[in-house]
């Protein structure tokens, strides 16, 4: 029987199916990262973004599809992480605009709305690149427009849109040579294809779980680690933490004395989704693993016991943990009384003309940026891109009259731009791709200058520094003609792999030597997870042998993922 309209019920099922599909395949999407580095985050970003959209849609009380579309778009906007999440939000922003005021969607309404989403996404990108998610949305939308000339059956048309998306995805390596060289399709495009597949399955009633990716324990731990970092930031007031308990459990399905239900993913997930946020549910035939931030850990555990016995349980009080962090910060600060500190903070906030906000991971890096004039830190970066809402909150709650934001990661640019558009105060983005670029930009910051002047001068100064990073390869690949083996150490300079080595120190030394030229004066070494002061000193000594007039500075950055971040000016 043909389907010719979408009511609130069908729309809700489609949105939830898309959120579930992305969640189940997040790590597979992450694995499509062009560079074989341990920071692939497209799947995590798109999953988090869609989950936010789905939550807003679920909470919307109206039964008009136009209102539900608007709620979905708002949730995606506020929850968007990374460029892929922003583009996904723009697709549904265009969709919502085209369905405004509609009670139900006819076949033509749906197809035209999706096509408008494609146009909106293209407009949102300053320099659209083919071979990306944009190609997938454009070609799949055109397929829908073509198919509607033959039939008004939404099931048939949605399947055509999905298949066209798959075909467009397969062609992305032909449009972007780097994808072909590495042997992957575009990760953002793959994420959108999963969304279209979920829509197709929801409309047709088909359920196909054969493509679900099953991450291993290490990958799951990384996802949980990223979620927790995103939810609890270094300077966040404990009173502002929405959910107190980080709750994790591993359930052995069908085992135990209190089993009353047979496991169904949607049923299991939906109940937990109403108890909190940062929800992660992963399962196979024998176990289901859960991570959620909630006020009701007991309800989470009781729910799990209805499906099996609890093999492992972890519950952490995030408010208490944050209070400990704040207390430690206070101990390390001066001896002012709490009342004096509160008064001083209030006065500083009251008189702050410009908030200088930076995204960074690592306590040492945060301190370094603050010493250069940053007033607010948003915890995030590689593997844990902040949401639009995170950046927006930092701007609006800064107490300043205007703001400058340094994203320090190219994948955060669109999110930051989006936050600036809807901020309560005038905000400019300095498009710094790295911590080194941020440090260089901050040298040009002038509190007396206008926002436009500071943005122009600071961005210009980002080009005066070379940014290097050392990390390990997570898979075998070939890129830029260079063969790389899993676990090799790579030196990456301004987005290009310039050296590899079996030894971490040697990879770092080779990278710095490749970065030096006759105008080089200053080398800054930030060591983080996997790095140490001793090895940094050895790297410094090796570089001094090349040029003993260089000013080489070493700092404990505390950054994740990259043992060494090294800049040359």
Key words describing this protein structure:
50% helix; globular; 22 helices; alpha+beta; four-stranded antiparallel sheet; 569 residues; 18 strands
Written account of the structure:
This protein has 569 residues and is an alpha+beta fold. Helix content is 50%, strand content 17%. It contains 22 helices and 18 strands. The chain has helices at residues 8-24, 26-30, 42-59, 65-79, 82-98, 107-124, 133-147, 154-175, 177-182, 187-204, 217-231, 265-273, 297-305, 318-332, 338-351, 363-371, 388-396, 413-422, 435-442, 451-461, 504-515, 533-546, and strands at residues 5-6, 105-106, 245-253, 276-283, 287-294, 308-317, 354-360, 376-379, 402-406, 427-429, 466-472, 477-479, 482-484, 489-493, 496-501, 522-527, 551-556, 564-568. Strands 15-14-11-18-16-17 form a 6-stranded mixed β-sheet, with helices on both faces. A 4-stranded antiparallel β-sheet has the order 4-5-3-6, sandwiched between helices. α22 links the parallel β16 (522-527) and β17 (551-556). The longest helix is centred in the N-terminal third of the chain and has 22 residues, at 154-175. The radius of gyration is 25 Å and the shape is globular. The termini are far apart. The model is unreliable at 209-213, 215-222 and 229-236 (pLDDT under 50).
Give a quick precis of the structure.
The protein has 569 residues and is of the alpha+beta class. It has 22 helices and 18 strands.
Spatial order of the strands forming the largest sheet: 15-14-11-18-16-17
Q: Give me the oligomer status.
A: single chain
How many strands?
18
User: Strand portion, in percent?
Assistant: 15-25%
Principal-axes shape call? globular
Question: Which regions contain 5 or more consecutive residues with pLDDT less than 50?
Answer: 209-213, 215-222, 229-236
Whole-number mean pLDDT: 86
Structural class: alpha+beta
Number of helices: 22
Largest sheet: 6 strands, mixed
Distance between the first and last residues' Cα: 67 Å
Radius of gyration: 25 Å
């Amino acid at each position: 029987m043909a389907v010719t309209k979408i009511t609130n019920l069908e729309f809700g099922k489609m949105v939830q199916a898309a959120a579930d599909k992305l969640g189940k395949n997040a790590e597979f999407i992450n694995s499509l990262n062009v560079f074989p580095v341990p920071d692939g985050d497209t799947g995590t970003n798109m999953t988090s973004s869609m989950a936010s959209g789905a939550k807003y849609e679920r909470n919307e009380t109206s039964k008009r599809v136009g209102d539900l579309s608007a709620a979905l778009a708002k949730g995606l906007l506020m929850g968007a992480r990374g460029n892929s999440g922003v583009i996904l939000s723009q697709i549904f922003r265009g969709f919502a605009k085209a369905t405004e005021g509609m009670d139900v969607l006819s076949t033509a309404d749906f197809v035209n709305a999706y096509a408008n989403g494609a146009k909106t996404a293209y407009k949102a990108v300053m320099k659209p690149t083919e071979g990306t998610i944009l190609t997938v949305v454009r070609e799949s939308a055109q397929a829908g427009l073509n198919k509607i000339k033959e039939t008004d059956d939404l099931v048939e048309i949605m399947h055509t849109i999905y298949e066209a998306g798959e075909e467009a995805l397969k062609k992305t390596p032909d449009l972007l040579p780097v994808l072909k060289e590495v042997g992957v399709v575009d990760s953002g495009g793959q994420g959108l294809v999963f969304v279209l597949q979920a829509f197709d399955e929801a409309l047709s009633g088909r359920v196909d779980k054969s493509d679900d990716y099953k991450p291993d324990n290490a990958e799951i731990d990384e996802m949980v680690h990223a979620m927790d970092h995103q939810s609890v930031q270094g300077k966040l007031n404990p009173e502002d933490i929405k959910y107190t308990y980080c709750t994790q459990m591993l359930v052995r399905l069908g085992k135990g004395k209190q089993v009353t239900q047979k496991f169904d993913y949607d049923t299991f997930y939906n109940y937990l989704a109403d108890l909190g946020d940062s929800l992660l549910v992963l399962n196979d035939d024998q176990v289901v693993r859960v991570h959620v931030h909630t006020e009701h850990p007991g309800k989470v555990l009781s729910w799990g016991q209805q499906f099996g016995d609890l093999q492992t349980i972890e519950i952490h009080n995030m408010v208490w943990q944050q209070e400990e962090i704040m207390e430690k910060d206070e101990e390390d600060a001066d001896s002012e009384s709490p009342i004096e500190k509160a008064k001083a903070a209030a006065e500083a906030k009251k008189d702050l003309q410009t908030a200088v906000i930076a995204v960074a991971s690592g306590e040492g890096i945060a301190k370094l940026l603050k010493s250069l004039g940053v007033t607010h830190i948003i915890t995030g970066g590689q593997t844990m891109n902040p949401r639009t809402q995170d950046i927006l909150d930092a701007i609006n709650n800064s107490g300043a009259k205007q703001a400058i934001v340094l994203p320090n990661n190219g994948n955060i640019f669109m999110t930051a731009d989006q936050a600036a558009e809807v901020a309560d105060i005038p905000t400019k983005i300095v498009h710094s791709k790295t911590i080194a670029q941020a440090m260089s930009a901050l040298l040009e910051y002038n509190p007396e200058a206008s926002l436009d002047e500071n943005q122009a001068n600071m961005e210009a100064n980002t080009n005066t520094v070379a940014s290097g990073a050392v990390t390990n390869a997570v898979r075998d690949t070939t890129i830029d003609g260079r063969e790389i083996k899993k676990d090799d150490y790579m030196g990456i300079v301004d987005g290009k792999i310039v050296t590899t080595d079996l030894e971490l120190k040697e990879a770092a030394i080779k990278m710095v030597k490749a970065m030096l030229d006759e105008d080089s004066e200053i080398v800054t070494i930030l060591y983080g997870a996997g790095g140490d002061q001793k090895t940094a000193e050895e790297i410094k000594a090796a570089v001094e042998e090349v040029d003993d007039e260089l000013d080489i500075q070493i700092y404990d950055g505390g950054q994740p993922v990259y043992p060494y971040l090294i800049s040359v000016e």
